[in-house]
Amino acid sequence: METLSVDENASNEKIKDAIKAQETPEFYSDAQKYWDNIPATNDGMLGGFAHISKLDVGGSDTFLKLIFKMKNPPGHSRAVDCGAGIGRITKHLLSRHFGKVDIVEQCQNFVDQAKEALKGHKKVGEFYCQGLQDFNPPSDTYDVVWSQWVLGHLTDSHLEDFFRRMGAALKPNGVIVVKENVSSSGEVELDEEDSSVTRPEKLLLQIMDQAGLRVLKNTKQNKMPNGLYEVRMICLRPKSADSSNGTTV
């Protein structure tokens, strides 16, 4: 794994070169090849850490309940699970809180497994087999856009674009929820095996700000096993929304 600094004193040219390297066609095609060869199981989705699934869902459930207690909270009508894999989050979390949940996943074998696992589930809506860099839902569609452990597969520029599109797709009082690993070194860590990056929290928040989003809540996922990245759960709303809709935590 190669690490590239994003500290204020780091070389701007080095950062630009890193971003340029991410924006080659191989950045996405290599990720596609990697995930196409991963088993469509919880263990495959969680990199061999299937045992943390209950802990992960429990932390997310608590966070989502806090969001619903905010002033001017999102509704419970429709959510979208971005980078849904085999539908683990849809099945165990989002379907408990929303009338309909759409699924976005670029790997066809994961989509097929999600359809099988969720067959007959009345709360499952549309399946979109595409990368998040291409996902562009209509405006006024979702109460909550949920993305988890997937945004490292987007380049910085595509991530900013994704946030802008998702902000535009929200219903009134809607929010975007991001659950992602963050690096503790202040550096962008590039994983050549799965063609992804792990960003420091500072950079992730910077991209969100540039996309016109403001943070309503920002919480750490607790009790994760030692040796894993810190996981942040961040709730966002477009800055254009009424500033009284939530408070930063």
TrEMBL record:
Q: Name one GO molecular function term.
A: N-terminal protein N-methyltransferase activity
Gene3D superfamilies assigned: Vaccinia Virus protein VP39
EC no. given is 2.1.1.244
**Which GO CC terms are listed, alphabetically?**
cytoplasm
GO terms (BP aspect)? methylation
Q: Where does S-adenosyl-L-methionine bind?
A: G83, R88, L132, Q133, Q148
Q: Does the keyword S-adenosyl-L-methionine apply?
A: yes
Please name the Pfam families in this protein's record.
Methyltransf_PK
> Does the record carry Repeat as a key word?
no
Origin organism is Meganyctiphanes norvegica (Northern krill)
Checking InterPro entries in the record gives: MeTrfase_NTM1 (IPR008576), SAM-dependent_MTases_sf (IPR029063)
The UniProt entry's sequence similarity note says:
Belongs to the methyltransferase superfamily. NTM1 family.
Please state what the protein is called.
Alpha N-terminal protein methyltransferase 1
| First-tier enzyme category under EC | transferase
